[in-house]
Structure formats: C-alpha cells, structure tokens
C-alpha cells in the first residue's frame, strides 16, 4: 500500500496508540534514564512499533526518537516522542501523547499529536493548516484550528510545564514577570500547552529547556494554526532547545519580558 506522508503519520499514531493505551493504568516497570527522567517499557515499545512501520514504508528515511538511537541519513527525518508526558502516564494522569513529525531539509512538514486517553488528535501539514479531532459517543468531530486574537497581557492565558527549569536556566525573573503580567497562569505542561494554544484556548506557552522531539510536532501545529513558535532568543522553529509559542500578536512582548534582565 502507498501512503502519503500524512497518511503514514496517522498509521504511526495508530500503532503507538495501540501500545500506549494498552499499557495505561497497568502495572509498570519504571526505570530512570541518565538525566533522571522516567521511562517504561511502554515508551520503548511504542517507539519500536513506529520504527518498524517506518522501516517498512519509508526505509530510506532517517529517524530521531527519544528512546532509541538515531538511524538513517538524508534530508528526510522522522522525529518521534512515543510518550510525551511519561510522568503523567506513570501517575495515571491521562494527559500524555505520542508526537510524530517529518522534517524535510530541517523544516517540519507533517505533524501528528495523538492523545488516546483524552480521545483527541491534532495534526498539520505545512501550508495546509492545522486540525483537531475528538472521538466520542456521537462520532468523530473535526475542526480547523485558529489561535486566539488576544492582544493584551491583561487578557492572556499563559501555560508552562514547571518552575524548576526557569530557575535552573537563570530565567526565573522573566518567568515570574510574565506570570504577574498575564490574566491566567496554568501549568498544563508538555504537548497540552501547545495544542491548547493552537485551539485558541491558551495565548502563550513557554519552556526554558526542551529537546527537539518534544517540540517538532507541536511547532508545526502552532504555526499552521496562525501562531508563532521560536526559542527564547527569537529563533524560529523547534530546534533551539527552548520554546516560546504565542498567538503571534503577543510574541515580541513575551520574548522581551522573558529575556529582560536590565531592570531587575
């Protein structure tokens, strides 16, 4: 069977969902990686399932994932996080997802984020917009995503992952200033911050230190929903090691607050 890249990304997400949802709420053997982050056999098995399909349908493509060594070479690279939100997963919090994206010449062109415990999925194709699906008793609901039009901090909702990273990276002052300046602050965290931004429910999302496999898929979804996605220095895209995502209108002001140390 011949798949387009988006169709294949859906197949990869389906394969990951089968593994992750099957292991959710079960007895888990939890290990700590060298960076002290947790990992389970479910994480590894989900990435293996994705890699097996890629080996079958895209054998010439490179693969970069969280749980296994990079494979392949060339200008096409699949970027995978089998479970974004493993800490939630192991504590039986249903907010976790598989992140799957394709980068061509270092530009993310296809992205799928699948959160089966929430019965939701988001996807985007470059220059074709971003979409979301809800799976429920009434069937499947699909809609195109658009970021908010909020243009003032006093009306803006700010989501983040944790306080610790901001402190460890010397950015605590800007982070706290942004918290004080905005209308609402919630640590939705991980992928959830960014897809909520793409839906227009959140206006600002930021993380001070985060790897490519956590950002590649959500960056395209945010951009295709009309938002802006950079690192803290303002560099576009998911490869800068940090993330600032906004509805676009607020972006320069957010960057200014997060990086301004002259008045403190």
From TrEMBL:
Binding locations of Mg(2+): 66, 81, 83-84, 214
Sequence similarity: Belongs to the inositol monophosphatase superfamily.
The organism's taxonomic lineage, starting at the top: Bacteria, Bacillati, Actinomycetota, Actinomycetes, Micrococcales
One annotated GO biological process: phosphatidylinositol phosphate biosynthetic process
UniProt xrefs under InterPro entries: Inositol_monoP_metal-BS, Inositol_monoP_superfamily, Inositol_monophosphatase-like, Inositol_monophosphatase_CS
UniProt-recorded name of the protein: Histidinol-phosphatase
Tagged with keyword Transferase: no
SUPFAM superfamilies associated with the record: Carbohydrate phosphatase (SSF56655)
Keyword Magnesium tagged: yes
Cofactor: Mg(2+)
UniProtKB keywords: Hydrolase, Magnesium, Metal-binding
Domain of life the protein comes from: Bacteria
Record field: catalytic activity: a myo-inositol phosphate + H2O = myo-inositol + phosphate
MF terms in GO: inositol monophosphate phosphatase activity; metal ion binding
Pfam families according to UniProt: Inositol_P
Source organism: Brevibacterium celere
């Amino acid at each position: 069977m011949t798949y387009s890249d988006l169709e294949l990304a859906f197949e990869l997400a389906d394969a990951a969902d089968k593994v992750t949802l099957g292991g959710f709420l079960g007895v888990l053997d939890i290990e700590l990686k060298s960076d002290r982050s947790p990992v389970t056999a479910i994480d590894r098995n989900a990435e293996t399932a994705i890699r097996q399909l890629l080996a079958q349908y895209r054998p010439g493509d490179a693969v970069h994932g969280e749980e296994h060594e990079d494979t392949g070479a060339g200008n096409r690279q699949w970027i995978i996080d089998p479970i974004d939100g493993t800490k939630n997963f192991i504590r039986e919090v249903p907010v976790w997802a598989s992140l799957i994206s394709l980068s061509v010449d270092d530009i993310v062109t296809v992205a799928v984020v699948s959160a089966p415990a929430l019965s939701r999925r988001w996807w985007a194709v470059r220059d074709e917009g971003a979409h979301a699906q809800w799976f429920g008793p009434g069937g499947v609901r699909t809609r195109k995503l658009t970021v908010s039009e909020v243009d003032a901090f006093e009306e803006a909702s700010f989501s983040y992952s944790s306080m610790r990273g901001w402190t460890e990276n010397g950015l605590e002052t800007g982070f706290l200033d942004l918290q004080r300046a905005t209308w609402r602050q919630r640590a939705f965290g991980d992928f959830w911050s960014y897809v909520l931004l793409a839906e227009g429910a959140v206006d600002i999302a930021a993380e001070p230190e985060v790897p490519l496999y956590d950002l590649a898929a959500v960056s395209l979804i945010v951009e295709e929903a009309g938002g802006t996605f950079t690192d803290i220095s303002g560099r576009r895209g998911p490869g800068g090691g940090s993330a600032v995502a906004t509805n676009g209108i607020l972006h320069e002001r957010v960057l200014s607050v997060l990086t301004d140390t002259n008045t403190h």
